[in-house]
Predict the structure.
Amino acid sequence: MKRTGIAELPLHGGRCPPWLFSRMRRLAGATSKIIVHEYGKQEFLRRLGDPFFLQAFGCVLGYDWHSSGLSTVTMGALKEAIRPDELGIAVCGGKGRVSRRTPSEIEKLGDVFSISSQKIERLKYASRMAAKVDNACVQDGYQLYHHCFVLSEDGDWAVVQQGMHDRLARRYHWLSEGVRSFVEEPHSGIAGDRREDLVLDMTAHESEETRKASLDLVRDDPRRVVVYVREAEQRSLDEYLARSPQVLTLIMPTQHGITELTERTMAALQRAYELQPSNYEELVAIQGIGPKTIRALALVSDLIYGKPPSWRDPIRFSFAHGGKDGVPYPVDKATYQRTTEILERALDGAKLERREKLDAIRRLHDFF
């Protein structure tokens, strides 16, 4: 079963001290080798696709348990620690500008892993679509700024990416295993600490008819969309503002409304019309089709065809462990026990210096 999900973490400033990062890199590399040796490359990717594991992994490496930096620093340490030619696994991308290098880094691994050019293109497509879906199709207000694409020599992959909104970071996990569509319920375990009042989720099953109607609009004539956008936006405001007073600051801010489609958006719609996409995923994949276009098509689909999209935040439950002092809430002992056991099994039999191994486990037990 595929494992994906979301974790929400407070944004912390500052940098990881070099003395800690060097140790994190060493322990991350050793732990990764053990997991791959004991359970295989696919299991390693499964664990990275599980927010439970990554959170516990960052803890055992000694980083702040609740900080947004746990994601970026842990993945950064993992990227430097893993040798692709030795482990058959590689980490591409990272934070900020580094995330834009993901496609070129995937291409370079083609020779290392002897992956065909056709498969490399599919991997680059998966990386791009995972980011685009979480940024455009799931409009929860979190802007992505970190994207790591982890792939194996067998062509399997996992994605760990993070977005930011109002000093809060939300982490998204993907796993190639079982993903049949990027736009139809691709997340099987979405979770977070805070449920937003209103989220446009075009990947939800409830949005299926809206996806079909959006596709029909694009394949017909983009000029039809322009006529109805202003009316559709106002109708959306009237209907949903009453349900959520925060809507104007969260989902539909007045300074960034879509009552006027920009030239760039119209150019993207025209390009989509010329390409005549056969399904919604092909539509989303078109360059220039971003959050505003996705939203405009969804609102107009509701207005014309009466096919409303899902406005429910797809978050199900929290992956956070809590804190020993009750902040943000008391420690969830059952969850913490599970993550502890996962790492203890992974560390069991590790070829680490005994002192470093015991210190790693003791840090987790002391906190528990």
User: Anything to note?
Assistant: Residues 64 and 70 are 6 Å apart (CA to CA). Residues 240-259, 317-321 have pLDDT under 50 and may be disordered. Strands lie at 5-10, 89-95, 138-139, 143-152, 157-165, 168-175, 200-201. Residues 205-305 form one domain.
